[in-house]
Structure of Cyclopropane-fatty-acyl-phospholipid synthase:
Amino acid sequence: MGLLIDYLYVLTIATIRAYKWLELRVLQLFSGTIQKLWIYYSENWLGIVVHLPDQPLKKISEKEEKRILASCGYNSLIHLKVNNLSIFTRSANTGSLAMGEAYVNGDWETLNGEEDITEMSCRMFDKNTHKYFFNWWPINRFLFWLEHHAFNLQTMGRAFEVGKKHYDLGNDLFESFLDPWMQYTCGYWAKADNLNDAQLHKLELIAKKLDLKPGMRVLDAGCGWGTLCKYLAENYEVECVGITVGAEGVRYAEENCKGLKTEFRVQDYRDINEKFDRIVSIGMFEHVGYHNYRKCLEVLHNCLKDDGILLLHMIGVNHKNMWLTEPFTHKYIFPNGQFPYYKDVVEKIEGLFIIEDWHNFGPDYFKTLEAWRDNFKRNWPTIADKYGERFYRLWNLYLSASASLFKSRKGQLWQIVLSKDGLRREYRAAR
């Protein structure tokens, strides 16, 4: 049955691509009108001044600048240089996917620095531009649902795809922008002023929320490079098992945690069938997918001892108009990723766990991503020969646009503490 569904999905995607190819040909007949509308709304709605190829840069008078800023509601202009006029019809055709591909191909750039990419993306989130992409031609909404939500894209057969395509790209890449603890999730900046401290404070926050005791057995579901396991084993004298879909992460973790009571496996969460005093999952739930939330939580429920604690750390969404899968990120960065919607999480928790605490520190992810991007740019010369200029543009866009998700507050970062039937002892979640 699974193989048949996979074939059906491939056929569906091929049909969507064929339709979009034909739609683009029709849109090209109206390229002049689309270009004018694109430029008008960019300036008056988003405060983005568009400069066309083979033309002198626009000179914006002080009076005109005030008019545009009054119209869009922002306090500064963004200057966007278009290097390929096809961007206008392509973005009408495939939205953010086309914009992302165009940037990677060098078809547009921001003239006042790459930091403006974050601000431009933030404004697009502010104004829900993706909603208008759906609304101008309603079939876009149906095709998006068909491609990203109708099928289960996180089956056992697809579970390791994100590991191979993202997490196994190379440890040197991740070492170039992460902190020394190789933490690839949001730091905790409440009392920190730099990335290293923010990530250490995050590790300690998790440990406190788990209410650990020496000798406990802890599962880290989605352990990355195993450094949370290392931290807990070293500082709290617990035994840790880490599972991940990335083989490079396991190799790193095994070398880094020698001599500690830790074990690391390349393993899908659905294959776990052991008992643990505590379970923690940091940044894995975004890869589980709506179709599998209940199954994932049932597995974790089965593995957790009756008086245990489960901590879920995830990016989430509670804006009704936000999409849960972003097409460019799905295609080039995190295949099959999906942001959990808060109602879906609560619905799937019901009957399995009691919510002991729900902590949102989404703005801290903006600081974390800004720090990652700065590190990535600063250390890029050390890995440039291996990855190439196109990869640099791809990852610079990924980090910059991701930062805008949290700057705009359309993305949240949740830590949810769960117990099986309510803890019978006093529990106050750390802050």
Residues 2-148 form one domain. Strands lie at 48-51, 78-82, 108-110, 217-221, 239-244, 262-266, 276-282, 304-316, 354-360, 412-419. The two ends are 47 Å apart (CA to CA). The mean pLDDT is 95.
